[in-house]
Structures are given as C-alpha cells and as structure tokens.
Amino acid sequence: MAEFAPMELCAALDISTDSARGLMADALELAHRLKRTWRLVQAGKVPLWKARRLAQLTHKLSLDGATYVDRQLAAVAGKVGLVTLARLVDEAQAMFDPNAAEKARLAAAESRRFNVHTEGANHDGTIHVEGDLDLADALDLEAAIAQRAEELRQLGSIESLDVRRSIAAGDIARRCLGLDQAIEDGSASGTTSVVKPRRVVIHVHLSAAAISRDEAGVAHVDETRSVISTDQVRDWCGNPDTEVVIKPIIDLDDHHHTDAYAIPDRMAEQLHLTQPSCAFPWCDRPSRRCDTDHVTAHDKSGSDGKAGPTCSCNLAPLCRRHHRAKTHTAWTYDKTDTATYLWRSPHGLHLAKHRGETRLVTAHPPGVTGSPRRR
Fold first, then answer.
1. Which residue of 31, 87, 117, 121 sits 20 to 30 Å from the alpha carbon of 95, by its own alpha carbon?
2. Helix, strand, or coil here: 294?
3. Are 52 and 43 in contact, with CB atoms under 8 Å apart?
4. Using an 8 Å Cβ cutoff, are 133 and 112 in contact?
5. Letter string b/e over residues 161-200, b meaning 16 or more CB atoms within 10 A of that residue's CB
C-alpha cells in the first residue's frame, strides 16, 4: 500500500489518517486471508466490529496461521468472545510460527508501559492511569500504595480506601521528586545544596472574572485540551510547593513578522493558541507536538514570485506525517485567516479546517481544472 494512500480515503470519509489506515488494513486482511469470516460478515452472521478485531489480531500471523484461525472460527465466529479470539490467535502463532512466538515472548518485556492519560482530563480534575508492569514491580507498587493508604487512615483520613489509594500514588511520586531537593554537595565541609524541585508546566487560560471570583467559570488546559474548574486551579496554585508563572497576554489577531527562517517563541505560542491541533484535515495531534510549517515554503517562490515569509499569516502546525505528505505529495494548502486552512487533495477534494474542526468544501470546485498547484 502506498504510504500516503490512506490520506485521500480519510478526507473522503471524514476520519483521521490513522483510522483510514486501519480500515484499509482490516479490509485487506478479511478479503484475502480471512475469507470464511468475510463471507459470514457479508451474510450478516458476524458483526463487522468483531471481524475487524479478529483481523487486527491475525495481522501478525503467517498465511497458514491466519487460515487455521479462519477455519476454526467458521462455525462460531459470531458467538465467541474477544478473549477466545485472542487465545486462538496465540495458539496459531505457536503452531505455525514458533520462532515468532518465541520472539513475541521475549518482546513482551519490552512492551511494558505505564501511562498517565493527561489527555483525558476533565472538569472534575481526575485522570485515568494504567499500565503493564513486570510482576515483581507490580507487587512492589501494590505494597507501597497499600502501605501509604493505611498510613493515611492512621493519620486520620476519612476518605474511602479507593480514594486513599489514589492519594497514596501522588504522595509516593512527590516523595521521590522531593529526594532531589536536598543533597550533599560532596565537599569536605559536608554542606547541603538545595536543588529546586522539578517544574511541571501547565498552560491554563482564565478570564478576568474567573480570577477575581466574580464568577465560577472554567479554565482551559492546553496540554490536555480539557476544561477544569477555577477552584481546582486555585487549589493547585495555593500549594506551597507550586511555582506560578504569569505570562503576558498574546493578542491572537496581531500580525508578527521576522526576516529570519527561525520562528520566534512568541510567534510559535500565538500559533499554538489559534490552532490547537495539526492543521491537516481530521488530525487531532496537539499543535504543541507538531512541526511549525511555512505554508508557502521559505526557500521557494510562491505564486507572486516571492519566498514565503516567516510571519503569522504563513505558519501552520503540522504533525510529522502530514508535514511529509505536504512536502512529498500533491497535497497543498493555503492559510485563509488566522485559524483557517484550505486543503486540496491529489484527487480534487477540498477541505477547510478551522480551529480543529474540519469540513468538506467540495469534491470538484466549479471552474477548477487540472491538477492542484504544488507549493
């Protein structure tokens, strides 16, 4: 499959590039390697969501392994659960590709992870944490949290056990961070050097009324693209260990310009505030994790014969994948105002993205012929 092929499909179906890529991969797996299951889907005997899940599991199998799974499930695919499907796939891998099964076993340790889902933060100020740990590490973590939760109870906490366990996790984290605050400097005098605790940067946007308590209001957090209560912000800022930095307001309508190719921090910050995500249609990668692209290339001539300037009207956040698509394929785009981008796909789809929202303008604009102009 061509690297950039899913992008045209995602634009037509109003889905992200990753979703289009997964849809195409699942369709190919079902049509060519899970043919019995695909016939059952077409007959209405197996729900499409379950068939797609099976296809995602069998991607790693050889053709013989995928055929074995397809044959075993032919009569019961619509009745078995996802756990049974996963076990059957593991069995097929062990039978038909033992070397891959052994590699998977060895690679399991490399798949360990611990995720703090800050992007899921909501108004109540809580987030979800989950991970896959080594058994010994998991037992130690469980023992530490249980011990700290019991200490909190003995200290007079009236919270439930679950709440005390959640507080314990934060206490353990702060205790580890606090180890760096006072260390021996190694000199003969044995003096102690105080090290500033790690700074965690969160960009919070508040109205003047919310700050002055004239209204309850909400605060917007850039890192998680969520809203939280202003009372939660006050609690964070009121912590004696918190360092609060107030930055000047940036006028989002101001036009900034520089003759250099490098983009000044203030101009980049203005871009992040006006465009919260990648400028490509349907992509929701946060702009702070994207490249900052010159819409009209800085080192190439635009339609007026001039190189693209480094200014507010010629910048866009593009994730690395869509930056490469713009550079190496016939995808082109223009910036029509401070937060709106008009895209043209290689096959004539026209889409507009404004402050994270995408809409299809038209597939074949009147009066436009030939291939779109490259930039």
1. 31
2. strand
3. no
4. yes
5. eeebbbbbbebeeeeeeeeeeeeeeeeeeeeeeeeeeeee
CB 165, CB 159: distance < 8 Å:
no
Question: Among residues 72, 64, 123, which one has the least CA distance to residue 96?
Answer: 64
Q: Which residues pair with 182 in a beta bridge?
A: 194
Alpha helices in 197-238 (DSSP H): 208-211, 230-238
Q: Lowest-pLDDT range, 197-201, 232-236, 272-276?
A: 197-201
Q: Whose structure tokens read 């500033």?
A: 196
Q: What angle do CA 373, 374, 375 make, to 5 degrees?
A: 120
Query: What CA–CA distance (Å, rounded) separates 263 from 298?
Result: 11
- Decide: helix, strand or coil at residue 345: coil
The tens digit of pLDDT for each residue in 300-329 reads 554 555 677 888 888 999 999 999 999 999
* pLDDT at residue 257, as a whole number: 84
> Minimum mean pLDDT among 33-42, 236-245, 353-362: which range?
236-245
φ, ψ dihedrals at 86, nearest 5°: -65, -40
Task: State the Rg of the chain over Cα.
Answer: 27
β-bridge partners, 318: 291
Contact 337, 351 (CB under 8 A): no
- pLDDT tens digits, one per residue of 184-233: 445 445 555 444 444 555 666 666 666 666 555 667 676 666 666 677 77
Task: Give the other-Cβ count within 10 Å of 341's Cβ.
Answer: 23
Residue in 213, 230, 225, 272 with CA at minimum distance from that of residue 247? 272
SS3 assignment for 239-278: CCCCCCCCCCCCCCCCCCEECCCCCCHHHHHHHHHHCCEC
CA 57-60-62 angle, 5° bins = 120
Q: Who contacts 257 (Cβ-Cβ below 8 Å, separation ≥6)?
A: 309, 310, 311, 312
Nearest CA to 96 out of 58, 148, 143 is that of 58
